[in-house]
Amino acid sequence: MHELCSMRPEDVPEVLELWRSTPGVGLSRSDEPSELERFFERNPGTSFVLRENGKVVGAVLGGWDGRRGYIHHLAVSPECRGKGYGRLLVERVLREFKKMGVLKVHIFVYRQNTDAIGFYRRLGWYWRDELGMMSLDLDREEGERE
Ligand SMILES: CC(C)(COP(=O)(O)OP(=O)(O)OC[C@H]1O[C@@H](n2cnc3c(N)ncnc32)[C@H](O)[C@@H]1OP(=O)(O)O)[C@@H](O)C(=O)NCCC(=O)NCCS
User: Fold this and answer.
1) CATH class for the region spanning 2-144
2) Ligand 1 pocket test: which of 48, 87, 89, 119 has the largest number of ligand atoms within 8 Å of its C-beta?
3) pLDDT, tens digit, for every residue of 21-72?
4) What are the DSSP calls for 64-113, one per residue?
5) Distance 135 CA to ligand 1 centre (A)
């Protein structure tokens, strides 16, 4: 039996275990429990955890910056893949985004993660060949930046 619920700070230790053991999910300082708590405060009700017999088997973060929606860290544990759980998690986030009037949603995905790309394509998402990504670390002094 599975249960899909909004992600709460209490879920984070188990969810981090899932993410840490999932290739394709890249963790950073923003995934410290205190940072995730700030994320939930800023984005209430758009991140979800899926449990099967009480055990976390899937998780996803959804966030909206006021312009675009973003989905981060979608993961389903290997033994539970292929049962529609990934779709369920994504569709649940999208349902909330639609209620909020979000017009477009992005994900960041490693280019070599062909499974995730195949999965998202199946759900109707499209690859943006014309776009790349640039980043700047605001938590480092200028001299420390790569
Ligand atoms: C990507 C992931 C979440 C998919 O989860 P899942 O529960 O196995 O996916 P679902 O069973 O919900 O599949 C939904 C649909 O996508 C299809 N699909 C799943 N994986 C696919 C793949 N690799 N290629 C093409 N289609 C795929 C399924 O056949 C299904 O199609 P249908 O609904 O028309 O029958 C899971 O493989 C995973 O956790 N991967 C590792 C983490 C990761 O890479 N996350 C993405 C970070 S961007």
Assistant:
1) alpha beta
2) 119
3) 999 999 999 999 999 999 999 999 999 999 999 999 999 999 999 999 999 9
4) E-SS-EEEEEEEE-GGGTTSSHHHHHHHHHHHHHHHHT---EEE---TT-
5) 27
